[in-house]
Each structure stands twice: as C-alpha cells, then as structure tokens.
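Co-fold these.
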Amino acid sequence: MVEWGLFVGRFQPFHNGHLEVIRSVLRTYRPNELIIGIGSAQTSHTLRDPFTAGERFEMIVRALEFERLEHFWVVPIPDVDRHAIWVSHVASLLPPFEEVYSNDPLTRMLFQQAGYKVPELPFFNRGAFEGTEVRRRMAAHEEWRDLVPLSTRTVLDELGAEERIRLLAHRDTKSTGGTHGH
Amino acid sequence: MVEWGLFVGRFQPFHNGHLEVIRSVLRTYRPNELIIGIGSAQTSHTLRDPFTAGERFEMIVRALEFERLEHFWVVPIPDVDRHAIWVSHVASLLPPFEEVYSNDPLTRMLFQQAGYKVPELPFFNRGAFEGTEVRRRMAAHEEWRDLVPLSTRTVLDELGAEERIRLLAHRDTKSTGGTHGH
Amino acid sequence: MVEWGLFVGRFQPFHNGHLEVIRSVLRTYRPNELIIGIGSAQTSHTLRDPFTAGERFEMIVRALEFERLEHFWVVPIPDVDRHAIWVSHVASLLPPFEEVYSNDPLTRMLFQQAGYKVPELPFFNRGAFEGTEVRRRMAAHEEWRDLVPLSTRTVLDELGAEERIRLLAHRDTKSTGGTHGH
Amino acid sequence: MVEWGLFVGRFQPFHNGHLEVIRSVLRTYRPNELIIGIGSAQTSHTLRDPFTAGERFEMIVRALEFERLEHFWVVPIPDVDRHAIWVSHVASLLPPFEEVYSNDPLTRMLFQQAGYKVPELPFFNRGAFEGTEVRRRMAAHEEWRDLVPLSTRTVLDELGAEERIRLLAHRDTKSTGGTHGH
Amino acid sequence: MVEWGLFVGRFQPFHNGHLEVIRSVLRTYRPNELIIGIGSAQTSHTLRDPFTAGERFEMIVRALEFERLEHFWVVPIPDVDRHAIWVSHVASLLPPFEEVYSNDPLTRMLFQQAGYKVPELPFFNRGAFEGTEVRRRMAAHEEWRDLVPLSTRTVLDELGAEERIRLLAHRDTKSTGGTHGH
Amino acid sequence: MVEWGLFVGRFQPFHNGHLEVIRSVLRTYRPNELIIGIGSAQTSHTLRDPFTAGERFEMIVRALEFERLEHFWVVPIPDVDRHAIWVSHVASLLPPFEEVYSNDPLTRMLFQQAGYKVPELPFFNRGAFEGTEVRRRMAAHEEWRDLVPLSTRTVLDELGAEERIRLLAHRDTKSTGGTHGH
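Predicted complex below.
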C-alpha cells in the first residue's frame, strides 16, 4: 500500500479533468495521503499561467472539500529551471512519496529515471488541453463554465479571471513580452 | 470569523511548544483552515536547520493527525533573502489568509506593516528556545525525547536524527562552514 | 500634490514617445520628483533588449538634461521573474512614490491591485511600438534617427548601436537563441 | 575632467561622515555627474542593514537637496554575491563612470584590478564606524541625532527607526538568525 | 604563444563539426592548454538542449581521447542570464585564457568588447546547424550517426538519446512548454 | 575498477595535503579518470575563500602537471545553497562518477545517502586545517611556503596572494562584512 502519493499539475485553472484524475487516482492506487503539487508555483499573470499559486491552492481546496475528499495536501512547488535536479528539489520539499501521478511526459520520464513508480493514468492527454481550452474560451468571450467544477467558477469570478486573462491575451498579441515596461 | 489563518515556524524539529501553540490558536482564534508554513524550507543539513522541509512536513502531519486535528495545511515556504518582499512572496503562495500567528518579532513586524492581523500568542518566546534545546541535547548525548510529541520521536529515529546532528555539530566546531569541500 | 511619481519603461532605446510622455506627466500630474524606472535592467544584448541599463541610463539623462528638465531620477530596476511580487520589489528599491505612470497594461494592473494611483496617460499605446520600430529600422538599414531625440542619436552612434542590432538580428534569424555557445 | 564619478556606500543610515565625503569629492575631484550607489540594495530589516534601499534613497535625496547640491544620482545596487563579477555588474547598471570613490578596501581593490581610477579619500575609515555607531546608539537608547544630518533625523523618525533597530537588536541577541520562523 | 585558449560550445550533442574545429584550432593557434567550455551547462531535457552538462562532458572526453588529443580541459559553464556580465563570469571560473574560439556572433562580440583575442575560425557557421540537424534527424527517425564521431554514437546510445529526444519533440508539439505539470 | 572518481575540495589554496591525498587516491583506488571538483566555485575575495575558481584551477593544473600525473580533470562546482539537492547538482555537471573522495563529513554523508561509494581517505582531517593554516600565516606575515607545492608558490606570488589576504583579514577585523559599501 502506498503511504504518500504525489499528483503534479499546473492547475491554470483547476478543471474537471483534474478532478476526474484525482478521483480515479484515489480509487485505483489508494494512497493513504495524496499530495497535490502545484507546479510552476512562482509564475502568475501570464497568459499561459494567469493565476498565483495561492489562487490555485484555493481552487483545489474548495473543489476537493466540496467533494468531501480527505487526506489530500496541497503544496506549491516553485520551478528550479534545471530539469536535471528537479526531482531532487521536489523530494526535498515533500514527505517520502512513493508513487507519482502525472500526464506530462517529461515529468514522468524524470521521476522514472530517479526510480519512482509512475503508474499509468486514465484520461491520458486530457489535462493539458482542458486548461488551455479554458483560458482560450475566457480570452475569446466564449462559455467556459462547464469545463470547471462549480466551486472553481466561484473562485474564478471572485478573482476577476475573465478580465485578467483578456488583458494578458491583449498584451501578448502586441508582443510586448513577459517583462515590465514598454 | 477567520477563514484562513497562517502559523509560521521553522520546526527544526517539531516539538511540544509548537503543538501547544497550534492547539491554543485553534481554540482561541478558530480559523476555519489553518496553514502551517514551514519557514526556511530550502535549508537543511546545517546544525541550526538539520531537517529538510519534507522531513519537517512529515513530523507535523504525523503529530497533528495523532491529535485528530483537522483542517490544517502544511506548506513549505522557501526564503527569498529579502525581508522587504517576504510578505508579498508568502501571500503569492497561499490562499488569502487574514491572520498570522508567530512568535518571531521580525515576522510579526513585517506582517503588521503589510496590514495583516497578528494577534498575541500564548507561550510567547517558548518556541525558539525549545527547538534550539532539542538540537543541543541531541548533539550533547542528553535526553531530548520529552520535548517532542511521541510521533515526532519515531520520525526522528527513522531519520537517524541524532547521528546527523552530531556530525553537523562536530563539523561546525571545526568551523569549516556551510559549504562543500575542505 | 504628489511628492514622488514613478514612470516605468524599458527604453530600448529612449525615443521621442518617451520624451513626450515625460513632458506630459510633468505638466499634468506635477510630481515634485519623478523617478524614471528602467525596467528589465538586467537584460541586454538581445534583439528585443539590445542596450544595458547603464547605456539606457545615459540616453535618458542626456535627453532630459538637454530639455533642461529637473527633479528627475533614473533607477535601473532588475526583473524578479515573478509578477506577483514585482510591485513589492519595486517599492523596496524606491522612495515612497504615490503615483505610477505606465502604458503597459500588466504594469498598470499590478500597481492598481496593490493600491497605487495609476492615472491615464496621453499617447496611450505609442511607447511600445516606437521602440520596436526603432530597432526594426536599425536592423533593416532604414532611417531611424527622426524617431529619437538628438542627444540619443549621439549616444547610439557612440555605442555602435546599428552594428550591434544587426548582429543580434542576424543571430536571431538563425534561431540559435539567447544562450552562449553553438 | 571626469564626466561620471561613482561613490559607493551602504548608508545604513546616511550620516554626517557620508555628507562630508560627498562634499569633499565634489570639491576635490569635480565629476560633472556624481552617482551615489546604494550597496547591498536588496538587504533590509537586519541589525546591520536595517533600512530598505528606498528608505536610504530618500535619506540621501533629502540631505543633498537641503545642501543644494546638484548633478548627483542615487542608484540602488543589489549584491551579486560573487565578488569576482561585482565590478562588471555595477558597470552594466550605470553610465560609463571613470572614477570610483570608496573607503572600503575590498571595493577599492576590485575596481583597481578592473582598471578604474580610485583616488584617495579624506576621512579615511570614518564611514564604516559612524554607521555602526548610529545603530549601536539607537539600540542602546543613547543619543544619536548629532551623528546624522537634520533631514535624516526627520526621515528616521518617520520610519520609526529606533523601534525597528531595537526589535532587530533584541532578536539578534536571542540568536534566532536572519530567517523567518522560530 | 598562447598558454590557455578557450573554445566555447553547447555540444548538444558533440558532432563532427566540433571535432574538426578543435583539431583546426590546435593546429592553427597552438594553445598550450585548450579549455573546452560547455555553455548553458545548467540546461537539459529540452528539445534544444537535451543532454546534461555531465553527459556532454563524457561525449567530449571520449571523442578527444579516441583522437589521442592531450592538454585539453572540459569545463561546464552555467549561464548567468545577463549577457553584460557573462565574460566576467567565465573569466572568474577559468585559468587566465588569452584567446577565445567560437562561431557564435554574440560570444565573439562580448569577448572582443572585453579585450580578448578572438581569431577567425574555419568552418564558420557550421557548428550551429550540425547540432540542430542531429536533433532533428533523431526526432524524425532519420539516420544521424554519420554526423557524430564513433565514440559519441556509443554514448548517445547508452543514454537512450533517440527516445529522449522524441519524447521532448512530442511534448513541444503539444506546446506544454518547458515547465512541469500540465 | 572505477571509471570516473570524484575528489572534492575548496583548494583555498591548493596545498601539500591535497597533493598527498590525490596521490594516495590514485594509488589506492585507481580510478581511470579523476575529476577534481573545486567546491564553492562562485566564492572569492573573502578571508575564508580568497581565490577565484579560475585561480585555484591554475594552481591545481600546475601542481599536478609538475608531478606528471595524467587523466585528471578540474571542474569548478558552484554551490547551490541547498544541501538537499547538492549531490543531484554535482551529478548533473559531471560524467557518471562512481566513487567520491572527500574528508568533509557533510560531503561524505550526502553522497553516501545518495548511494555513492565513499571510501575512507588517508590523512583524514588534514585538508581542512592546512588550508586555514596557510591563510592564517599569510595574514600574520609568517612563513607559509613549506605548506604548498613549489608550483603553487609561484602562482600565489603572481596573484599577490599575501597582499590580498592581508587586506581581507584587515577588513574582517573591522567587521564590515562580506558586502560592498561602508
């Protein structure tokens, strides 16, 4: 039996695909404690990564508490910008996890090379596209609410997510980049 | 009523003083969710900070689950090495907390200057000394087990804490410092 | 009355649009002291950011002293690569400014969220394009001198700006990227 | 004749010794423009470096404007933590300075090795001690006001400098170090 | 006569073009000791930079020892992300080299501005394209082995280079970028 | 048989103790290739770490070439300031070494925990003291030359080592610390 398991995602934003994978992981692999690692925790206010780690933290807790899930932990994980030491960095921040759940091929490869168990996930490939799709719809004034849990809609509305993403999308179009000043 | 409260400590290691403050905070200020921030998360393997954030994470979860406490979250918080932006850094990583609990005068001053509520804690001044005392006793081959919760003793023994701290203490005496090589 | 005001730009290079906005800010908002923050101060020798902060510093001082402007300060501001703490970073480096002048939508949003006054600027949108246009013309051997103040032309010529930008443009075309080696 | 000269200090806080050296530099070496570099700009809220770069910036401007000095520039310079590249770092942030004024032996050695003119200063050795003395007196409830210019006293009082330094001194005595948590 | 010469490349992977340039440098400029600097040493596991510095180190040593070359040194050089201080950074890590050999226009410009001798190389422009071509062929299941020395083929096969590059190429296509999580 | 072995030190400066350990390692453990890792490579111009990585690099090469040793490699290794990921950092920079030779207890513990062979060294404890002693004697105007190889004396004299160390020792006494400015 697995004591600690780790699920890694960026959650920009948390969406129904994430929720289904988490439910499925809990049902299939049954870790006693599930750590939900928020990747790229230092990044926010870009079109690809609009929300802070803290904002994503709140989305996850609200959604999983609504589902009455228990024994999960949410941990922001800043990037180290060096793939070769990333696993070691993650391991130093977390309790001694044994299994890693992720759909990202690089994340899977790095943990496998370091000797971790990285079981197959259902809904493979779904996560990445669904997050991109939510952001695209927000920017394009299309309907996005059916892609995220009810509680996430509330958090996103309170954050003014639509306005933020449109401003960032507009800025990207003018290609003034990710830094300050003009 | 406070939705999210933040308790910040270094937990090198988690000890009875921490446990009493957490119990008291939950009883007195009654935050719905209590975030336990592990300060200086990037530091380990020094005499002052012997344990990794992950090792401290495990100590805290084991101790608080043994106490059947609920609605607490454990979050490693790396230093930014610039006190003037530390509060902003913490705020970006965590859900929107309203109250901060800490015995450290600088931590209190920085959060107060940024407009957070920082209520008084009981057992003021106790935390800092108790952690130092546990490490001192371990290094000196004295009895330290009565200073930490039962579950922490188990984690510390599994980690080989005594041996690690004695090696680090020995190294410090020879003043070869915190860097590698000789 | 505003004691300290902050104008943020990248100034790659300083051009007539910058000069007009600064004149207009001084006339309209009348800060006692105007800080001119050089954004992305750490970046240079790329096609988008060809000049060092020090080279941009000299362009600004030469241009504004030629105009006999006074009570302005020039301050290089390195990026922190985390938008969520950028305002806090800027505030720690500068005297207690009250108003921020910028055309960049993200810069405006971040300062507004942090509670600063961010009044509307005239010539909105002009800054970003004019800098890009100067660099494009230099790379394409077209006439760029009418886009920048007289004193900036002198500084750019002394720096060998045309040659530098053409080399960087050539390098980008071969997509060998922003790092060293081949 | 020197176009740009550079005076480097930490200014924790700005005091009469700094003012006298700056007056003397202007009289003796007569640079057209004097850059006043605030060293260790990223550091604040420690006993040795209590004030942010921005707070020090304000002290310097207030004092020198009171003296009706002109053609000086104030620039925060963050450390790079590598002495061997520090001169190169400073040079990239500033206009092309030719002379460096400093009482710090290492600063002098590094600039000399890099080929800069580093003329002798009057009041040698005074700067370092006077800053330490101001902080010591503040911590010890002794009279410190005669050591700093009149305008600096006002800034320090507005900042609550005495209270801040006493809190930091108290914290240091308990040796809980420079990081957060307890 | 040149005592120490420096050849800078990224070596992703080491290929026949590198080998020919090194042979030619040794024959033409005859440095007593040749330092082979591995640029962007911190980067790996991306499509453009698939191999760690250590993996590239091994490729170079194997190839040059097979050629019975002597008096060469292999040194990983991490980026500093600031072109303006890069030369100073390299100089602090290496013995006092006098000549720099590189095909990269920016590398050449930066060392020339700092006063180093940067002689012309034969096979100009070849290096950059050959590395890109090896990676492209690997990703496209085309034959790449004739582009690299025999010993490099062995190292690449032992590393599972084809599989790694295909995984990274696949990931890039889905544009999930260079960070972790999905 | 060991293909790659790693010997880690700080070499401030290279001394007779280092030379004896290297000779003994080559004789006893017989690695085919010996990597000599220069620890704390980023540090220089402090009393404890007076020499740049490049200066130490030259000392090592001169001494070992004088001894006609072969198949050794010298590699500067910057600190990562996080002991928990240091081994992973070193491994990413170097060919796949199997054995580690070091007298530093922490270095030994970290590599052992990561599964490396770390055999016992002769002259245990000697290295650390001899480096400190050379620096102490230089600062105190005592005779230090018998503690280092002949070739190292030459390098140290060319660097003006005595003068540098005395300046740094004098600066430390005045406790103006490791940062710039006064």
